Amino acid sequence: MGIEHLKERLPEYARDLKLNLSSIAGEQALTEQQKWGAIIAAALAARDPEVTAELVAEGARHLSPEALVAAKTAAAIMAMNNIYYRFLHLSGNPDYRGMPARLRMNALAKPGVDKLDFELWSLTVSAVNGCGSCIDSHERALREGGMSREAIQTAVRIAAVIHAVAATLDGERALAGPQAMAAE
Prior knowledge:
- By secondary structure, the chain is mainly α.
- Helices cover 72% and strands 0% of the residues.
- The chain is globular.
């Protein structure tokens, strides 16, 4: 069901999100692999079980098994990196910037898909997680790799829409109370 099911689940006050979900589903600025990888990475970063389950299931029909794993990998590695590099960016102590991260990031060297696609998915997750340093780094790598500003903006719009859908559905479940949450 995926995107269509999520649109049905959104309340009427979130009709703009329904329209935006339709828009990203039909997006043409990215390849199918880039688009669905970004959707899956954003869903995982948004941390809503319903949104993640729906979009990963639908995305798996559009991606090779390797691309599906790579999109999940981008979400996993960036969940770690976004915290670390956001700390470096926000900390007032410059001493931390000169210290080695000592975090394993082997997936960045061999992501299993085209390097630009993986960079795009990493940017998508970084946008959801709000890491300015990672956003700058991935955007720069994408531009140096020849990706258009329109394609980069599309990935960030995907991140914004998926995050908003996850936040809205999570809020609606919270408003429905513990009984409704337990029934799901």
